[in-house]
């Protein structure tokens, strides 16, 4: 196996920051356990599901090797492509022969399903062949093409093989010949192909793919992406040109994938109007439309962003794919700016709204991630609309690639995780290890060494949730030189030096803007980057929905395990009100119900770990 | 003009309670002003809108008298029928010649648009003729037929003329010949025809219409009402047989119209299984799914009921038609039982969630009635989907008919309103006047007189919001004999007697079940049957969304006017928190924002009167 970066810039001079390759980092901590689960369990169980529900068979049917008709959603080809991307990353770590065979066989089936002219979509075969490119709004042809391209580029980078890349290029060329200013006009109903085309441009150095990505971005707002009238143009983010957008609206994953593509285009073109739009949208997202878990897209109606401050907890939609999309976007925004605030968001999303989408055993998934529940919402092994499971897989199998980055100024340490990295900087090898139990502890010991003299900066992200931190290098305090949210340490790292970082991992109560109407008089509980929740199974007395937390009381910590994964439980003081007198009543005169309050310990677990044990009510925002 | 009842029972022995005719009561108080507005303004301005947007023209086009094509929603014929029902009631009071001419002309156009075989729907003419009865789920043919029948029955009862009734009967006969157990199977996607058919049965004494209503009720749950697959069967209340329903679900107006029809069928058949279903659904509605304003249907998605306790305030859908449907249903439930609790609901709905649908000038309408707003939600003079305006008109023009009712035991006084009624009971005339400024005051002076000896009960509804009341008859205290929520006074009313009723019209703070998550730590303010709200235009300091009411403070009352309509304002003590430090923040560590609190008077107006002055935020549930 070769090594692979998530993003490979063609011309790094245009970019401030570039990633290291995914397999340059071996992880062994909190996220390492998840990666291990991916490599040993998830990647195989997902393939089984793809075979079982007929998604793989669609390719065999399309190529005439099997009898039958297309099964699943119109975009189900993309599930296979996302899995292939994840499987390629997995091969980086394991080189597993059985997996490699599955990958090869799958690629062969895809290749055989491709038309001679390059067209490839198993839904649009046989009698539906004549409908190709007739409904870009809802039929996801360009979306599927985008995932094919992303998978192909990942596969090429990992294996060095052109098998899938040739297929993708053939299709991309057909698309480039079909669409454009003087060709067929159109824009994808579901963005995705934009970032894929930029990556293909990075891989092949062929400018036409970047041009096509730009074309698709600029074509939005002309009605080409929203020809299907059931949803309004806002759903497709087609109500105005991209550069005029002021607010995160419409289908959340569409909106976020569009932002990803636009950031990629900015990264390669430097178009500052694109970047100022992205900043405007990012500010709107984080100040008006994001859950405390980093989840986004609050509305079931159209899987969409709500209005400003519309953040209901039980009926939070917060699709796992939207969390992933935001994670990817914030990474690109970091690459564009070197600002730690974007990585802070990645961290928040990852540990809360993203990981909640996966069961700890690695086999079950949430599509929707509510912040309150009555015990009915459970993870499933697959979905008819199976976009989320392989999206989780490709994100977690590439996780090590997100941890570090580099620029002409030095090396960025973005994410903390027990790990060993073998990097290269200014043509010399850098070994960088982290010893930490993060996110359970805020103590991180980092050892950095180069073989030769090599003076450069290490940028350590100081998360925005940290009030004060300790830093020592080789046992000595050093000045806290902060740059864009990073602590900068300049040094000649020859021979090895020890950096000791300490974040206070204490529990905090969070409150929200008074316009988030459901959270008035309530608090969320955070410890470090983790949002906590109260789940029935840990809280036998009363109903967790009616718990009141004593924000002045002492909080105890307790080591515990859920499904063999270590967690830290919190035990806060509080009380609860009995609900019995409320039975069969919805409104009463104040004071007419006298509720007894009983003193209790409120047991809290990290939000990502909920719904892994017995069913019952769960709540994030507690009455104070 | 003859006189007309809203509901005319065929065989009153089956029923406990029957209404008096609408024009037996002249009203001159709070609701009298609304009726006057209906008769002088609304009924004419609505006709103008129906002409302007082409709804009347659809009939002329259908009959070939005019060139053009169908305009508006597929069910826009029903707007004309609802207007005709309202105009017929209006004729009872005014006999206005100009209005009578409009009514006659409109009926003539309808008649000419009817097919020879009786079919009548202006959408299904010309090229769409072949699509008749092909999509009962979404095309509203039976719904429109229902409104035609209701209008025809009302028109017949008011004018004694058969012009519209003949049209309706011809169509009803076609429907009866078309649908049934051994004919074409089907059930309406939108219930409505059920209550219309029962009323046609009452008017014509022809059993087949009752049978057809029963058929349509019983056919639900077989998939005949939900053949269109975009919405799920629950949307159409077609997911299970009516008698198995446990919960108010699906499209709110559909659900409520179905309950209305089912109650009518119960009233004529005595099928107790229907009634126990209705009671179960009613309990579910009022204990889990109703706003404090009586509004229902909390979800934009499908204009539908949400889950239990899903009652967001800003994003409350609470369609005006759903409030009207609930008003009508509660009336039928009262007729079935003699229980005051149903009339209490009528009162709550009427003064709050229903009247909020109409501007005080009688010319503008809400389709959606939120309980919180940022100043953007305003009434409009008409809607593309114009179901609500004429629905309000037919309800308010028949309002006097809802005030009294009778049974073998006596006369029910359901609703309080300055008025003079000339009733008949046990073959002798009864004059009954109310002198009151209700709902502003709780003092009601009722004079009852008969010319001859006539001993019977008067049942005075004691609203459930009344904690204690005073009652005197001819200046003397009488025992408080309560029966089903009514105070019973038995007397020989010859010569005239004075009943003086006094309700304490004080302000109360209401809290809601802790599972209504948005209302935790908040109170609503009620005075008598009226729900209050704080509107920006009366509250210049700060933002009403961030007001905190002092529930122990004194509350002042003040007479005021909005658009020349008298109201009583409330002035409560409270304070507000500045929002300036929250700018550009969504979540913060508790205590990191120090908000100054400023003492203020919080000015409150009745909810029905909001959005009649300058734009600005409004809130019903205030922080306490």
Major sheet summary line of chain A: 10 strands, antiparallel
Fraction of residues in H or I helices of chain A: 25-40%
Question: What is the C-alpha radius of gyration of chain A, as a whole number of Å?
Answer: 25 Å
Give the CA-based shape of chain A: globular
Q: How many β-strand stretches of chain A?
A: 24
Oligomer: homodimer
Name the pair of protein chains with the most residues at their interface, and give those residue counts: A-B, 49 and 48 residues
Give the distance, in angstroms, between the N- and C-terminal Cα atoms of chain A: 54 Å
Average pLDDT taken over every residue of chain A: 96
Number of helical elements of chain A: 14
Global structural class of chain A: alpha+beta
* Weakly predicted, low-confidence segments of chain A: none
Strand content of chain A: 15-25%
Outline the structure in words:
- The structure is a homodimer of 624-residue chains.
- The first copy, chain A, has 624 residues and is of the alpha+beta class.
- In chain A, 33% of the residues lie in helices and 20% in strands.
- The first copy, chain A, is built from 14 helices and 24 strands.
- The first copy, chain A, has helices at residues 30-52, 57-62, 77-94, 97-113, 141-159, 163-178, 193-204, 207-219, 252-269, 272-288, 320-337, 340-354, 388-397, 400-403, and strands at 18-19, 25-27, 372-373, 404-407, 410-413, 419-425, 428-436, 443-450, 455-461, 470-473, 476-477, 482-483, 486-492, 497-502, 507-512, 522-527, 530-535, 547-549, 556-562, 565-577, 587-589, 597-606, 618-619, 622-623.
- In chain A, strands 3, 15, 16, 17, 18, 19, 20, 22, 23 and 24 form a 10-stranded antiparallel β-sheet that branches. In chain A, strands 2-6-7-8-14-10-11 form a 7-stranded antiparallel β-sheet.
- In chain A, helix 1 (30-52) runs antiparallel to helix 13 (388-397), helix 8 crosses helix 9 and helix 11 (320-337) runs antiparallel to helix 12.
- Chain A is globular and about 75 Å long.
- The model of chain A has no long low-confidence stretch (mean pLDDT 96).
- The interface between A and B is large, with 49 and 48 residues.
């Amino acid at each position: 196996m070769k090594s692979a970066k998530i993003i490979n810039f063609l011309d790094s001079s245009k970019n401030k920051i570039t990633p290291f390759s995914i397999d340059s980092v071996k992880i062994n901590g909190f996220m390492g356990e998840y990666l291990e689960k991916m490599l040993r369990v998830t990647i195989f169980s997902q393939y089984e599901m793809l075979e079982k529900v007929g998604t793989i068979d669609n390719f065999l049917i399309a190529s005439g090797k099997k009898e039958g008709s297309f099964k699943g959603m119109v975009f189900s080809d993309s599930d296979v492509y996302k899995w292939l991307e994840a499987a390629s990353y997995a091969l980086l770590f394991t080189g597993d022969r059985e997996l490699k065979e599955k990958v090869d066989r799958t690629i062969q089936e895809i290749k055989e399903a491709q038309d001679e002219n390059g067209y490839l979509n198993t839904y649009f075969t046989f009698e539906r062949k004549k409908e190709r490119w007739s409904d870009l709004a809802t039929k996801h042809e360009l979306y599927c093409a985008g995932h094919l391209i992303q998978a192909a580029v990942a596969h090429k980078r990992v294996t060095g093989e052109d098998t899938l890349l040739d297929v993708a290029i053939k299709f991309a060329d057909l698309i480039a010949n079909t669409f454009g200013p003087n060709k067929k006009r159109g824009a994808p109903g579901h963005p995705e192909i934009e970032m894929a085309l930029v990556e293909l441009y990075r891989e092949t150095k062929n400018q036409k793919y970047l041009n096509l990505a730009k074309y698709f971005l600029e074509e939005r707002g002309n009605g080409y992406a929203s020809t299907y009238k059931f949803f309004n143009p806002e759903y497709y983010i087609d109500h105005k040109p991209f550069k005029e957008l002021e607010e995160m609206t419409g289908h959340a994953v569409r909106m976020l994938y569009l932002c990803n593509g636009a950031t990629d285009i900015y990264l390669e073109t430097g178009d500052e109007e694109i970047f100022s739009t992205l900043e405007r949208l990012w500010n709107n997202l984080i100040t008006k439309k994001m859950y405390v878990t980093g989840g986004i897209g609050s509305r079931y109606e159209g899987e969409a962003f709500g209005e400003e401050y519309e953040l209901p907890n039980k009926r939070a939609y917060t699709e796992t794919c939207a969390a992933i999309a935001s994670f990817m976007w914030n990474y690109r925004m970091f690459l564009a700016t070197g600002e730690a605030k974007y990585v802070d968001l990645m961290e928040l999303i990852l540990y809360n709204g993203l990981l909640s989408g996966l069961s700890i055993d690695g086999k079950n998934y949430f599509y929707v991630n509510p912040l309150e529940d009555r015990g009915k919402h459970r993870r499933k092994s697959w979905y008819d609309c199976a976009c989320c499971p392989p999206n989780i897989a490709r994100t977690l199998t590439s996780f090590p690639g997100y941890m570090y980055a580099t620029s002409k100024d030095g090396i960025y340490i973005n994410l903390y995780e027990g790990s060993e990295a073998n990097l290269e900087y200014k043509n010399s090898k850098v070994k960088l290890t982290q010893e930490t139990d993060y996110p359970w502890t805020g103590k991180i010991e980092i050892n950095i060494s180069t073989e030769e003299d090599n003076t450069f900066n290490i940028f350590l992200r100081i998360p925005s949730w940290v009030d004060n931190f300790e830093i020592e290098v080789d046992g000595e305090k050093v000045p806290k030189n902060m740059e864009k949210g990073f602590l900068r340490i300049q040094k000649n790292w020859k021979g090895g030096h020890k950096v000791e970082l300490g974040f206070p991992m204490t529990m905090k109560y969070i409150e929200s803007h008074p316009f988030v109407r459901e959270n008035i008089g309530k608090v969320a509980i955070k410890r470090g980057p983790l949002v906590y929740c109260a789940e029935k199974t840990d809280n036998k007395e009363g109903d967790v929905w009616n718990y009141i937390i004593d924000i002045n009381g002492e909080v105890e910590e307790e080591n515990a395990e859920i499904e063999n994964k270590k967690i830290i439980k919190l035990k806060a003081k509080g009380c609860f009100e009995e609900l019995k007198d409320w039975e069969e009543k919805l409104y009463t005169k104040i004071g007419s119900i006298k509720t007894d309050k009983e003193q209790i310990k409120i047991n809290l677990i990290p939000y990502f770990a909920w719904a892994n044990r017995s069913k019952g009510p769960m709540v994030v925002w507690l009455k104070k």
